[in-house]
Amino acid sequence: MSKLVIVSVTGLGGAAGIGGGFYLLNRNSKDKIASKLEKETIQSRLQKAKFKILETGSSQWNEIKTQYNSKKNDASKVFSTSNNEVQENALKELCRENLNKSEFDDDLYSKVKRWCVVPTTISSHLKSWGVTPLSTDESKEEQKDKWEELANKYDSSSNKIKDLNSLNSEKWKSLRTKCKSMGEKKNYEDDFDSFFESSKVWCSSNDSKTSPQ
Q1: Residue 164, C-beta contacts closer than 8 angstroms, at least 6 positions apart
Q2: Are 92 and 59 in contact (CB under 8 A)?
């Protein structure tokens, strides 16, 4: 085979390699772009936040419906105000429509979080995030040292629990009582988000949580 033929074949092989490399690079770039362009829905955002979407056949819809109707005249909390009580199937349909939305604001997201996920308490939701709540059993003095450590930091901290500017004379017990109350709050109740963040700081034993400021 002549030198010219060998060089030509080699050149073709190199070109093929370059072309293949370009194809893979181009494909990977397109995949990354497509991934970035894939819009987040309310459902996917809730799942990332460790909430479980309420299944259509769940018996917990009755609990949700009762709570929803107790707020039916509050536009900041329900999907739409009404003098009539919402029926279970209608509420399910509202959730189905809104869970799939990819264009939404924080207000709508908050409403869907109230009414379309499996009801959970702050204490349970902390555990979903791998955060361990301190014991709030008032009949015992479990984890007293940890409660005292947190209570001693509370009054001088700027990161206060809502409506708790200071602790009473038995500081650690006062903090424990507040944490127990917050821990029982459910996601459809007011101030769930605020109390959840406060509970991570003031009601848990995890060293990895945000430190009191």
Answers
A1: 178
A2: no
CA angle (206, 211, 213) in 5-degree steps: 155
Query: Nearest CA to 199 among 113, 110, 117, 131?
Result: 131
How many Cα atoms within 13 Å fall on the side-chain side of residue 140? Answer: 7
pTM summary value: 0.78
Q: How many other C-beta atoms lie within 10 A of the C-beta of residue 163?
A: 8
Distance, C-alpha 127 to centroid of its chain: 12
Structural domain boundaries of the chain? 42-115, 122-202
- The model's pLDDT over 93-119, given as tens digits with 9 standing for 90+, comes to 999 999 999 999 999 999 999 999 999
Is-contact 115 92, C-beta < 8 A?
no
Q: What distances in angstroms separate CA 55 from CA 70, 121, 145, one per listed residue?
A: 22, 18, 42
147 Cβ partners below 8 Å, 6+ apart? Answer: 134, 172, 173, 175, 176
| CA 180 – CA 166 distance, rounded (Å) | 17
